[in-house]
Amino acid sequence: MFNLEKQDLENKKVIIRVDLNVPLDDNFNVTDTTRIEACKETIDLILDKGGTCILISHFGRPKEREDKFSLKHIVKTVSEVLDHPVVFHNDCIGNEVQEVISNLNQRDIILLENLRFYKEETLGDSLFAEELSKLGDIYVNDAFGTCHREHSSTALIAQFFKNKKFAGKLLLKELNAINQIANNGKKPVLAILGGAKVSSKLNILHNLIKKVDKIIIGGGMAYTFIKAKGGKIGNSLVEDELIFNAKEILSLADKLEKQIILPVDTKASKDFENNDQIKTFNSNEIEDDWMGLDIGKKTIEKFSQEIFLSNTIFWNGPMGVFEKELFSEGTSSICNSLKQAKQKGVNVIVGGGDSIAALKKLGNKDWVSYISTGGGALLESLEGKTLPGVKALMQ
Ligand code: AMP
């Protein structure tokens, strides 16, 4: 991939595909600026080098031109976060916007209207991509969170830029983090997977077991594995149709001499909503009617020991129903152990919506080495796929 840092950007019009799909409240106020902050580094670099920034992004899932999905609502906040004036134009292709851009100066920033006001964007239309390519001299993709989609502004536009297409700084950081988990992280590399469903992480498990040294499985997804090993899991969450796949992964791990580490004890309740009775069981001896909702103390101890033996750790998914105070101890204790490990120099990478939600709920998240901004894009990368948006930059 070509290096943006080495590129002469003086007086160049740079199209930057960013992900400004930020959450808004009912009064159109931005409630979380993380995605805007995430692309600031690339924008600053381009401004420092004397370029003009043309920001293109999607926003929500509009069916047509709908005012509530206009990017005009976020211009003020984008300008505040970037600490730089930002102008807005109410279209993203055509002669008028090209004319406006041609009259911009060095170090100007323009934000164009929602790409998804054209259905061609999500259809991956080449003509639409070609129209977008006429907006500038150089193309930068910094929207990791949409790189798994074969959309015009991510996967098709790059073909019109030959050696003038680049990964932005955020995209490079994301690719680097994935590389550390799956290829060149300092060993031992440990993946900690949790959350509700095995089905959403089956392909990741298949890929990661070949790449990392050990995998810890916690959360609701652990019970399918415990049942696959012959354990009694009571009324805990299970995907019976995946028992075969779970057995396959366990035997692949054995063959590769890798370890899959499962909970040894479980904090359980009889009722998901009403938790007046709580009991701890061995994870493979849960009585009928009881439902495992968090890892127990012995498991916290065991998982923490594994954390302290590792040098690179990827964490995705909570260890229990962390949203409920009664079942948040497992997730918060694992967070604390990860924090201690990080303080001793371990590389801790966190990704996936619920792990980030858990980090936020449990307090400060600034200690993590890297937090991925991508949901689906991260998961598909960890499944071993090269994302269409990334591939387009390499061709
Ligand atoms: P996911 O989206 O697959 O990462 O799942 C996240 C959700 O898994 C969270 O809402 C947790 O409450 C839920 N979860 C974690 N552990 C369990 C469990 N043992 N039983 C049921 N749900 C769980």
CATH architecture of the largest domain: 3-Layer(aba) Sandwich
Which regions are unreliable across 5 or more consecutive residues at pLDDT < 50? Answer: none
Strand pairing plus helix content: what structural class? alpha/beta
What average pLDDT do the residues reach? 95
List all distinct small molecules, including ions and cofactors, that are bound in this structure. Answer: adenosine monophosphate
Number of beta strands: 17
State the major sheet: 6 strands, parallel
% residues in beta strands: 15-25%
CATH class of the largest domain: Alpha Beta
Q: Shape, please?
A: elongated
- Rg calc: 23 Å
Strand order of the largest sheet: 3-4-2-1-5-6
Number of helices: 16
CATH topology-level fold name of the largest domain: Rossmann fold
Assigned CATH superfamily of the largest domain: Phosphoglycerate kinase, N-terminal domain
Percent in helix: 25-40%
What does this protein look like?
By secondary structure, this protein is of the alpha/beta class. The chain folds into two domains: about 5-165, Phosphoglycerate kinase, N-terminal domain (Rossmann fold), CATH 3.40.50.1260; about 175-380, Phosphoglycerate kinase, N-terminal domain (Rossmann fold), CATH 3.40.50.1260. It is about 35% helix and about 15% strand. It is built from 16 helices and 17 strands. Helix 10 crosses helix 11 (about 245-255). It is elongated.
